[in-house]
Amino acid sequence: MSGNANSNSLQMLAGHVDQDRLWQRHLDMASIGATPLGGVHRLPFSKEDAESRRLFLSWATARGFGTEMDDFGNIFVRREGTEKDLEPVVSGSHSDTQPNGGRFDGIYGVLAAFEALEAIDDAGIPTRRPIEAVIWTAEEADAQFGVGCLGSQAYANPSKLPRLLEIRNNLNIPVKQALAELMEDHLCVGHRAFQSPIAYYVEAHIEQGPELEARGKTIGIVTAIQGHRSFKVQVTGEAGHAGNTPERLRKDALVAAMQIFSELRKVFHDPNDVVRFTVGEMDVVPSAMAVIPGSVTFTIDFRHPDPETLQSLGDRIAVVTRENAGKCDVTVSELRHSSPVVFKGPVPEAILKAVESLDYSYMALPSGAGHDARYIAELAPAGMIFIPCWRGISHNEAESAKLVDMVAGTRVLARTLVELANL
Amino acid sequence: MSGNANSNSLQMLAGHVDQDRLWQRHLDMASIGATPLGGVHRLPFSKEDAESRRLFLSWATARGFGTEMDDFGNIFVRREGTEKDLEPVVSGSHSDTQPNGGRFDGIYGVLAAFEALEAIDDAGIPTRRPIEAVIWTAEEADAQFGVGCLGSQAYANPSKLPRLLEIRNNLNIPVKQALAELMEDHLCVGHRAFQSPIAYYVEAHIEQGPELEARGKTIGIVTAIQGHRSFKVQVTGEAGHAGNTPERLRKDALVAAMQIFSELRKVFHDPNDVVRFTVGEMDVVPSAMAVIPGSVTFTIDFRHPDPETLQSLGDRIAVVTRENAGKCDVTVSELRHSSPVVFKGPVPEAILKAVESLDYSYMALPSGAGHDARYIAELAPAGMIFIPCWRGISHNEAESAKLVDMVAGTRVLARTLVELANL
Fold first, then answer.
1. Which candidate in A217, A278, A390 is best for mutational testing of the B interface (most B CBs within 10 A)?
2. Is 0.80 surpassed by the pTM of this model?
């Protein structure tokens, strides 16, 4: 293919992204597990989950795309490349939802990938590499099983499989059993081995945060999935009578907790507003109006996309806490430590090139939430495309995205996939 | 009586305070409702309460003192004065306890008054006015009925009686019924009318706070029962995802609550350490590690002995709260407003004179807790004598006082009563 022909057909590609088709597919999917308040309740491994996957496979088959499934139920829909032996470029997300979740989280990434495949096909653009649209199984499993992204974790690192299969939900059903029931349901499709090589991975998703909307940008080029550390701080003072105990003899655990929180907020203050620092729980004991708090427990949720900042700033929590405990005793325990995944190299570069050629407004930003791309990045160069969502609300029936942004994201994705498939 | 004779017999008086008798009476009382952990469980209106009152009356009768009771069960034990028509000097406290309370709270004031009567009698000191030892009924009623000092309230202001009698406890039993059962139990004693005039009222009590012990003083001359205002502050922000929501778009109710608390602590800071300012409850909603707090409710307990400070400083709470709420909404509601009762004039002056003549170390201090003296002060000049209690612990089975301090307080009380009874 010459540079000119390539450039011409690429310019045609955006016009082949069909907004009515894209929207109709969202409506069709949203009808599976629809809630009265306009959301979707399509839990991982549920019969609604199975139904959404059957629908996806039926569209793929009708279109003549190839289909494969691995032993964790991850589904791959394939448009062949001109060089069939090359590793595919893969794009997608998940079709399950949180309990009473929204109509866009996950499924948008699946349908944008599928629409991109159709648009590329409709535009008659050949690519060297195959391009695939994927549904990863049980991304939203954390609400029932306490762990998410099961399918992408299993695919990227099958050594985790024995552990993942034994995790039980709140009804004591193991993943193994739930997965077997889901797989049973499916049509016969080709088999895909875990860890089958992927050339590049691109995931489109609603932002699930307010930045794009707040800054008036259409496309977010995701720089990283931020790292996440969480802590529990226990402050122990001494309960006492609020009327009788003078200030100088008090060991007020809430005063100490407040002082610690206040100093930590100064330490974590970030003029660039990238740091995410939250105290979400604070429990006071004994919690009586006329009793000086004897102990206070609070949590710290700290996230940052930069690995060094995550480490160094997070490590200051214990130090600052001890320095500001006054007359109280403190203990700090770390509950979670997930490193950031940084997206750089060919995928974000291809996204940037696509955005610029399509002339959409954009910004680079980290993802606050976790995604399947976190795990597939262990296997292949990866990146993500965000589109705005209303007020940043997600995991909620009120979740909403504009069709014009959905189309923009799909156009950027399609162009990115072609770019990567010809690398 | 000449000045010299008076001075001589007064010097004898201290020696007539019998520490063994005083201690034995405490042990006898502590055996009624004794708990396994060394405390006393003698709830108002209970059969243990009735038994303690019978015991008190039996001692009085054995000693030949007169006894009277009013229609709320308040018991008066009288040593006559040389001028019988003069209004009596009254001293005492209560014999009931908090649930699993201590062996000194209340009963010490009753037994010190009775010991003072006996010591004055033993010393053969005539006084112009009668001197009486009193048990006020149901001082500790707040734990079951939500209101305390029922007997002294009724005596000082019988217009409250219809309301007080209708208050129900946590078993839905009205005061009226509980009181009728208590009264039934008693021996026939003389009748005392509510609001019968009192010349002066003196109440001895353990401090129930740590000041005397901390400062190494034996006697506290109580300047006031401090005023008490309490508030509920509701801070409303917006819940949001801890990973996705940037600082500048947050309305974090806990951050606002912390800022308000911090500024209020500055406003309420008192170099003299008289102000009592406590946040004892703080409830965070939704209280999840990864969710920015959407609302926070906290309480403020503020006490001060000076009426003007109680008013002006308390009134700043709403202002400071609003000024420091940031992007959150706040509402402040006042739950309680009790004015201070200031003790000045003849009673604290007589206490001071007694302490100085006995050469005990002392300090002036306000009372953090409420006492019957609060209400009797509406009827007569009043004052209180505090003795140290271990670590300020009270309303607790671990409550403890030293016999040497109990004797000192009783000596001061006896001398004060003689002084006032000759005014």
1. A278
2. no
